[in-house]
Amino acid sequence: MSQPSSTVTTTNNLAADLKPQGEAAAKVKPCCVCKDEKAARDECMLFSNAADPQADCQNMVQKYRACMQGYGFNLP
């Protein structure tokens, strides 16, 4: 009895690189973690009075990235 052969297909899913690998993938979804950090980052970016909101909110962005990395998600 032979095993069915699997074919390798390439996808253009750019988000595939962001997904966690292994055990972490089964545990959490990116939308379900770091909600407080994401809310603080978004609020800072939306309501910043600075000329450059990205520079003004860099601390919040770094906290969000660090939190996501703690769950196995690699943000660009």
UniProtKB/TrEMBL annotation:
Gene3D superfamilies: CytochromE C oxidase copper chaperone. GO terms for cellular component: mitochondrial intermembrane space. GO terms for molecular function: copper chaperone activity; copper ion binding. PROSITE patterns: CHCH. Transmembrane segments: none annotated. It is found in: Mitochondrion intermembrane space. InterPro entries: Cys_alpha_HP_mot_SF, Cyt_c_oxidase_Cu-chaperone. Cu cation binds at C31, C32. GO terms for biological process: mitochondrial respiratory chain complex IV assembly. It comes from the Eukaryota. Keywords: Chaperone, Copper, Disulfide bond, Metal-binding, Mitochondrion. PANTHER family: CYTOCHROME C OXIDASE COPPER CHAPERONE (PTHR16719). Belongs to the COX17 family. This is Uncharacterized protein. It comes from Aureobasidium subglaciale (strain EXF-2481).
